[in-house]
């Protein structure tokens, strides 16, 4: 079961003016599940994306980058689950483009105004005929209050649909933000993660939107890890239809930081939801590293902790076997780290200092914190002013089960 | 069960002239198990060691380095299991030294002629009184044919004892090499791994022995990983008693490469045995990366594959979900990798080329290789002449079970 995460109520995911969503059961890989999603965007919508840095990036990621660069104005998004269309070479690119052609033709737009996305098994050809056969049904049920269905249509090993909304006043207008995400395994984003779609009806210039997505992704999806595996298909898309009626926001607008921070808040919630729904997760862990010389070394320490199978299995067992955290700090790659001048806290409990166990520490304190489902691991390096926070989950029998069984 | 690994017969571990071994049941952590080992070395034995680069290196590792640097001639080795004496600060150093003092006094040698080692739980004080109380029994049963008992005395989560011997002619003399190792989890050596002890009666100069240990460790223990966690206590010790009667070997001797390669062969066998006995292992995987620009990038790719929980669980399931290997190659950190110009083989089967699945590949071929217990994953980067080989194992339910239960 996910860690303190339930699917949102359909009514809690607010429609965003200018954004309609439709889905189909196209039997891409398995029958009787929503596996094709179409999002239709009003003319004039600004769109920004960030994508995986994996060298084996999926064919649809390559096509997305081409279509965004073509700058014709994005009018539709097409997502399929069941097949990642990654590790598929030239043929994969051709199939991704075929799917864009088909949707463009049905919506009377250009193919370069469509962004395609795929998620699922790598190294298998995309059954593009099935995807295309699903388009009429998806187009038939396009509507503005379909966000929960859309969140469900992009799930793979996810247990619950993930989405959230915000509504607030800006420039005298009511502005709405709604976002959905999917992802549960192969989660260690590098620039972006898995699939995330965030829409707002605020009017935001293209350059401001690009600045916002970079800011937001660095505070959200780039701070999570489930298993340390960076996907071939990671993508986060930000869409702004402009139909709220506010004056267009650019980087110099007073409202820039307001909308940036609201969008970031949504991105953080969606990113954390992915970890709470991490494959086999029973614990949600916040790893905070403070007082480092620079952010890079803080991230090294945080990820060494967040990726250690030994630490993740100890958290699964609620066993305060905390020496494993010291070992991870020690091998994180800070060559001149003075282990005699740092502190380790579990929740509020001081566990280690001066190179060893704190004199005040008794195991019952650690055991009590380990029983919680949300746990803070805090490392104070005492060598500078930088910090960073990473969110991750534990490592359970079910992680092995899910990934040993995934294709069967 | 370990992957094609059984404990050696006691008689197959040959005595090495000048080396005696004795053990005790000292109840360091658990009753009724051998948990203290003493190795006594003849006067004039040359000794070399390599140790973990973990910044939280254990107290005994620090003491070992001091005692080797003191250059008084090492005469004894003392190992305890049940407690790693790591993350224990000044008090840990003091306890490690106390144990050396006690053994030195009983053997009428100096404390700086003793190398101490500990393995077990981190962040707990060493029960040094128990270790010292076990010394008389260990000294009482010191004998040359005690190698199997010694291998058993250093086990923690290991399932089988690990050791091997070689005997051959050198300089007209019969030379013997015997080595033992332990380790099963927290295995991702950096310079050395876990505990390994290799002894020979060949006469080898100190500088030649140091050159040999560096060569051997880079070909053996530095090429294995179980879970990517670099231990606080990794140590490999090479001992040469000189009692075989050969002329002392230095770097310019014609016999230098002979003894170096024999010692390396023993180190490789002991290192691979650790992987075959990896926590929960059901598969032994050789990851070979060829035709890279340099060894470093080959190692990056090999370790990305060898550390991926997604790949390791797929191997556990014997599921040829090989796209996960492409994903790992893609995120390994080679920024200019041309994914359209590399090949992936599973055993002899060409799986992927030209950025996608090979036209000749059918899943039945991959499935057949995946059923084996020893599997070769071969990546050909086609961008240079460097290569590297890493050995690892799969990731099973039992890995989680072992590490969730370890302290209980």
Oligomer: homodimer
Mean pLDDT metric of chain A:
91
Largest interface: A-B, 70 and 70 residues
Low-confidence runs of at least 5 consecutive residues of chain A: none
Number of helices of chain A: 11
Overall number of structural domains of chain A = 2
Topology record:
The structure is a homodimer of 408-residue chains.
Chain A: E1 19-24, E2 36-41, E3 46-51, H1 59-70, E4 76-83, H2 89-107, E5 114-121, H3 128-140, H4 147-153, E6 162-170, E7 173-182, E8 195-200, H5 206-219, E9 224-225, E10 235-240, H6 256-276, E11 284-292, H7 295-307, H8 309-316, H9 323-331, E12 343-346, E13 349-353, E14 356-357, H10 363-370, E15 374-380, E16 386-393, H11 397-405
Parallel strand pairs in A: 4-5, 8-10, 9-16, 11-15
Antiparallel strand pairs in A: 1-2, 2-4, 3-10, 6-7, 7-8, 11-16, 12-13, 12-15, 13-14
Helix pairs in contact in A: 1-2, 2-3, 5-6, 7-9
Keywords:
408 residues, L-amino peptidase D-ALA esterase/amidase, 25% strand, globular, 2 domains, alpha+beta, five-stranded mixed sheet, homodimer, seven-stranded mixed sheet, 16 strands, Ubiquitin-like (UB roll)
């Amino acid at each position: 079961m996910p860690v303190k995460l339930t699917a949102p109520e359909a009514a809690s995911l607010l429609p965003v003016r200018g954004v309609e969503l439709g889905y189909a059961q196209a039997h891409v890989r398995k029958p009787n599940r929503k596996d094709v999603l179409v999002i239709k965007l009003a003319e004039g919508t600004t769109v920004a994306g960030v994508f995986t840095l994996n060298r084996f990036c999926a064919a649809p990621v390559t096509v997305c980058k081409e279509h965004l660069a073509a700058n014709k104005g994005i009018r539709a998004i097409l997502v399929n689950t069941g097949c990642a269309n990654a590790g598929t070479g030239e043929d994969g690119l051709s199939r991704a483009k075929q799917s864009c052609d088909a949707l463009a033709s049905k919506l009377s737009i250009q193919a370069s105004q469509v962004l395609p996305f795929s998620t699922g098994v790598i190294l298998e050809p995309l059954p593009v005929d099935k995807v295309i056969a699903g388009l009429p049904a998806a187009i038939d049920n396009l509507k503005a209050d379909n966000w929960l269905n859309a969140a469900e249509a992009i799930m793979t090993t996810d247990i619950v649909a993930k989405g959230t909304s915000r509504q607030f006043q800006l420039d005298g207008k009511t502005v709405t933000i709604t976002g959905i995400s999917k992802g549960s395994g192969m989660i260690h984003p590098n620039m972006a993660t898995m699939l995330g779609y965030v829409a707002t009806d605020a009017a935001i210039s293209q350059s401001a939107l690009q600045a916002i997505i970079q800011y937001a992704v660095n505070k959200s999806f780039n701070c999570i890890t489930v298993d340390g595996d960076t996907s071939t298909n990671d993508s986060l898309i930000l869409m702004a239809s402009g139909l709220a009626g506010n004056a267009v926001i650019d980087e110099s607008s007073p409202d820039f930081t307001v909308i940036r921070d609201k969008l970031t808040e949504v991105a953080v919630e969606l990113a954390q939801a992915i970890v709470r729904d991490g494959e086999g997760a029973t614990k949600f862990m916040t790893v905070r590293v403070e007082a480092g010389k620079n952010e890079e070394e803080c991230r090294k320490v945080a990820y060494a902790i967040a990726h250690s199978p030994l630490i993740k299995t100890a958290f699964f067992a609620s066993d305060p076997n905390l020496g494993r955290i010291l070992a991870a700090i020690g091998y994180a790659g800070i060559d001149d780290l003075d282990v005699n001048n740092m502190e380790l806290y579990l929740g509020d409990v001081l566990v280690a200092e001066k190179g060893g166990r704190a004199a005040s520490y008794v195991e019952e304190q650690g055991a009590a914190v380990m029983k919680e489902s949300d746990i803070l691991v805090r490392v104070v390096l005492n060598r500078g002013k930088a910090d960073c926070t990473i969110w991750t989950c534990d490592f359970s029998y079910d992680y092995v089960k899910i990934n040993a069984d995934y294709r069967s």
